[in-house]
Fold these 3 entries.
Entry 1:
Amino acid sequence: MEVLGGCYEQVLFGFAVRPGEKWEAVPDFTHHAHSASLSALATNDRYVVTGSRDETIQIYDMKKKVEHGALMQHNGTVTCLEFYGNAHLLSGGEDGFMCIWNTKRWECLKSIKAHKGHVTSLSIHPSGKLALSVGTDKTLRTWNLVEGRSAFIKNLKQNAHLVKWSPNGEIYVVVIANKVDIYKLATASISGTILMEKRISSVKFLTDRILAIVGDDEFVRLYDCESQNCLYEFKAHENRVKEINSFEREGACVLMTASSDGYIKMWSLDLDQIKNAPSLLCEVNTKARLTCLAVWLKRDPETKQPSNEGTTTSSQVHEVKPPLSKRKGICGQPSEEESQEVPVKRKVPDMKKKKKKKLQRLK
């Protein structure tokens, strides 16, 4: 596995993690692909993509350890990136557009004017049929990805900066400053609210009901989304925690945290014994101002990908038409009224003709 971190210094760090009785994270590569700070990071089974304030999305082939190309559709900072399986990528930017990419040919299938202001965050439903986005126009928008159009718009009192689906897709959270609003998909209404003392910087669902929250202090806090009670909290860093992520390994939850102090840490967390203090597996000091965090897991080729056969129906989301029988997941073409094609600022490089450069390896 590879732990990845992006920073203000325009560099992508890669650390090879060697699990064992004593975990070890060793420097694997650094890559200076952007001309401005990194703002977003996402991975699937093969690729890593980074978004930046330089308005580009850089692609890296992690199996071959080469630079794969660049996507140049956005006219502004790329603020959020999320893969759906190995076939699609969604990106959002300060230009207000949400782009849907085919990751086989790396072409933009749709470019939708999602918000009047910036797109600050997006999240894809586990079924692949819906997505949520929030922006600086004080709206929460639901997208029908089957038809490539807006399904529902909810006005918010303030600008939200994070949105996230739960693993089963039955609830989602919207973060506004230091507040987490918990919504139920079935009713599209708030079922509870979690208030923090300081601004929230990142959230991550560890289970369908346990939410990890970090913000402008040194602590990681675990909350129950049903009762809104804090289940446990622990000090993770000496400075504010910038980003949190997690993955499952051999039935155990591995938590990753990145801080403004430059450290990336990995923790072992027993979700069955949530009151037990997590154990520190390993840590690395990047000596950089970290902005984003991800993990690339080398999966078995036979590992099944997320199914496009979702259980979400049109009755669960306002104004969503029943999906067309011949179209599943993220593949429908939008109507002219519902989406806008924006001119590509610069041509996307031909991936076959582009000379692939080896990622710079640390000595």
Entry 2:
Amino acid sequence: MSPDRPAPRQGIARRLLPSVLACAALITVGAPAAAVAAPAAPAGLLSGVAAGGHAEIHPGSGRPVVLATIDVGLNPRAVAFTPGWRLAYVANAGSNTVSVIDVRRRAVIDTIPVGTFPYGVAFVRRGAFAYIANRDSDTVSVIDTAHRTVVKTIPVGDAPRWVAVAPDGRFAYVSSTGSGAVTVIDTATHTVTATIAVGLSPRGIAFTPDGRTAYVANSDSDTVSVVDAASRTVTATIAVGDEPRGVLVTPDGRTVYVSNTIGGTVSVIDARRNAVTATIAVGASPRGLALHVGDRIAYVANSGSDSVWTFDTRTNTVLGEVAVGDDPRWTASGPGGAFLYVTNTGSHSVSVLTLAR
């Protein structure tokens, strides 16, 4: 297993793991959508893709398969694709680096030194820069993606983890786990403009497609903070499951899904009422959530069972599962939503998945 800064209840998670493993069931998840349509994948980048850059959805399919495994740095955490999906950046917490993957070749082509224990990854200014949240440095490294070098280091709160960029690209939100706050960065100047107090140990962040609202998972409060982006204030607090970490918003902005890592569940939130409408039992220690192209099939990475499951988002029924590496954590959909990258923290790799026909 990979190193991590101990949380107050991390030992509880380990003690509960056997019972959580026995509770695996099924899930429905969603994913955020940008205000501007994602660019079509370059010609030849996708395999088995219909005209227009969208992968075909085959009725009855949905079983995940592993296409490749890419070795990266030590203990990878978050992964994100550049606009256009030609490259992917992986934050390697154990080696204090970022691996740059050539998506077509499925190979690491560069390694960039950053701060200590890099965790979150996001791209700003149309991919010109990458933001890397360094948990143990209390900073965000700004990488010039053209030259693949760090050009600025931004001090933020204590133990930053996740980075989420507003749909219009103007601001980035960074969850500072040790500060119980979200740091707001102006992406034009790479400077901090605000700090928003939320719950205890904030982790995942996701925006609604219109950019008006951000949802923040507070892992030690067992809540989700609803942040009004205009006023930068918390307008509601939603009780969810035990140790929420991952957050995704559906493309229509109506539903929010939150993975509860210790609880082994996903909370389903009605975004119009800011209320939990369902709780779904899933695998052991769920974290990363993502959608396949078409939004009918969802993925969840279960770090406690070393697997990725797929589910029908209309019927909430499991479609299949596949073993991946040790301790899978976070996910990213691409290219074109036809493939999934999953970071395997314990085996220092990224699994490339798609759906079987």
Entry 3:
Amino acid sequence: MAAVAGVRALQRLHQPGTFQRCFGLIPVQLTPTCLPRRLCTAPTGSKERKQPDTSENVSLVENLNLMGVDVKMARLRQPGVLRKAFTNEQAVALFLDKKGAPTNMIASIISRYPRAITRSVQHLEQRWELWRKIFNTDEEIVNVLYRSPESFFRTSNNANLDDNITFLTSLGLNTKDLHRLLTTAPRTFSNSLVLNKRMVAFLEEICAELGGKNPEQFPKAVISRNLYILIRSTKRVRTNIDILRASLTLSNSELLDLFQGPGAEILDLSSECLKNNFLSLEQKMVAHGCQKADIKKLILRFPMVLYIGKDRLSTKLDCMLKGGITMEQIVRKPKVLEYSTQNISGRLKELKRVGYDFQEKGINVLDSSQKRFDAKIERLDEIPIS
């Protein structure tokens, strides 16, 4: 019932006087940019209500319950927020409501990132304007907030956000690139500017070490392909480079080509995971008669294979081998491993039904969109099976 009450209350936040009716607070005149202090939670007098042993702010907890917030989750995530004497929960809720966030979304955002209610409306308005430099609509921002509340509310340093946008733009990243970054890896923008500059300088050093002629262009190439790279440590990236160099006996020029291309996507992978997945792939391929050169070819052609865990990789390979595909064909066209085992299995059954010969026609048919694959099957259905 508290959740329902919270939904109804939030739906009426923009109407005059509703704070008093919904939350038992004194109505005051709202201003466009900052809500008055009376709309923030303050501790009640000791004569009226005793604080529990946990020293939580009882009025705050009651307000959050009325708003439909999962207080248990909030308590687990950031317990210190519930002990604050002054918070801004209703002003934050009203701000998000005006930006188009549904009431259940507002409650979810606060439940998962309670620190949101400590931000002032003035701060939020400034931050929103900065995000609008990258996003076209408020709706896009609301969707990112719902997926990652921390990305918007984690820091109150709007100047740092502005500096990061300026810095990333200076690398040659355009608005589309920044949009992808903020949507996929929003923590990039709450990193300190110093931290982001450190990773960029590190990538430039790597390029120079590998004999690259344009180190200043290398960070852009890597970031464009790996949106998570700026929220990883330089130590992890360095370890992964060393693992790949040693495991595949790659030259400097081969490493440079790899990281300027699709290989950039595996630089942020956990080093332990990278090592284990490589060993699994190596063991499986050697068991099927492959040489080291074959393993190297497959990885250079499809580096994302190193994201596939041991069990999933083994299941996929077994599925294809049983379906009449050879390891030699997989090495030549490893991108087929990108598809799920269910997808591969279903396509193999369809191709078997129409008498498709992989040895004669190859496996390119497996690496196609569903629409193109269905069209191919439709054409093959019209050809009589000899």
